[in-house]
Write a structure and sequence with these properties.
9-stranded mixed beta sheet; globular; 11 helices; alpha/beta
Length: about 280
């Protein structure tokens, strides 16, 4: 895959980014960024040293957003950034990573497999730096204005008082983006940054509907796209969406061996993707 150089006047340059103060004159892109123009976008950032609480809320909110077709942008950093990208991919969603270096020099190196997976699943990597550029310290702060600039809203799930993600919040405010923050334990330092943001006017987030409201979306207006864990689950889910609910008809039209069909239905029920409706009929949860 070849890196594309996209100037600010090019039609492929993201419109959201073009309107921010000090937009990058050039973007270097791997993958597809077109979807950024056709869907709502939330940037999800936070601490590198993520706690179990931060991990749980980041997973829950990123998963719920991705299932509703909302794109997730982050910085591919360790901790919450990487978790947001990975969770989005696991939910079958679309995600874009903004790097503080050239796209031939993934930073951190340990997240290179994640970057490859983002591309394989239809997402994108972007940077304002040409190939060969190292991840110098000032680049990380500058990168954050692009993370927030590509979004409709910025979500910070966990941050200490001196977290670098607070730079992103400042950029978001300057860009006119909504700043959203997950409240945390008031006696631990790991949530001091998000709690302080809320005290100064950030929107507190305790569930995905809070984010949808901030985006101007009715909570029930986006259907959750249930994703199968394998081809067999996808086949059955497609049939149920098409209106086939009778258990016998599902087995016939799926063309799955009876044992495989029964096992797949069991896993779909256990994972909360389908539920019995009675009289041998099934529906989506």
């Amino acid at each position: 895959m070849k890196v594309k150089k996209v100037s600010i006047n090019h039609p492929d340059y993201p419109d959201k980014l073009r309107s921010i103060p000090s937009p990058p004159k050039v973007l270097y892109v791997l993958g597809d960024t077109a979807k950024l123009a056709t869907t709502k976008v939330v940037s999800v950032v936070g601490s590198r040293a993520v706690t179990p609480y931060g991990r749980q809320v980041t997973y829950q909110l990123s998963h719920d957003l991705a299932q509703r077709g909302i794109a997730i942008v982050s910085g591919l950093a360790l901790g919450i950034d990487a978790l947001a990208h990975q969770t989005c991919l696991d939910a079958g969603g679309y995600t874009v990573a903004v790097l503080p270096c050239g796209l031939d020099n993934i930073s951190p190196r340990s997240n290179r497999p994640l970057a490859i997976k983002i591309l394989q699943q239809g997402g994108a990597l972007v940077s304002e730096y040409p190939e060969g550029t190292q991840a110098f310290k000032p680049n990380f702060v500058a990168r954050n204005r692009i993370v927030s600039g590509l979004s409709d809203a910025l979500l910070i799930t966990e941050a200490s008082e001196r977290s670098g993600s607070l730079h992103t919040a400042n950029f978001a405010l300057e860009q006119g983006r909504s700043v959203l923050a997950v409240p945390g334990n008031i006696i631990t330092s790991t949530s001091a940054g998000t709690n302080n943001l809320i005290k100064t006017g950030a929107t507190p987030i305790t569930e995905v509907n809070d984010i949808l409201y901030a985006l101007g979306i009715e909570s029930d207006s986006l259907a959750i796209d249930v994703i199968g864990a394998n081809a067999q689950e996808d086949c059955i889910l497609k049939l149920v969406r098409a209106g086939v609910t009778d258990i016998n008809q599902l087995q016939i039209e799926s063309q799955l061996n009876l044992d495989v069909f029964n096992q797949t239905m069991t896993m779909l029920e256990i994972s909360g993707k389908v539920r019995p409706l009675g009289a041998a009929h099934w529906g989506l949860c």
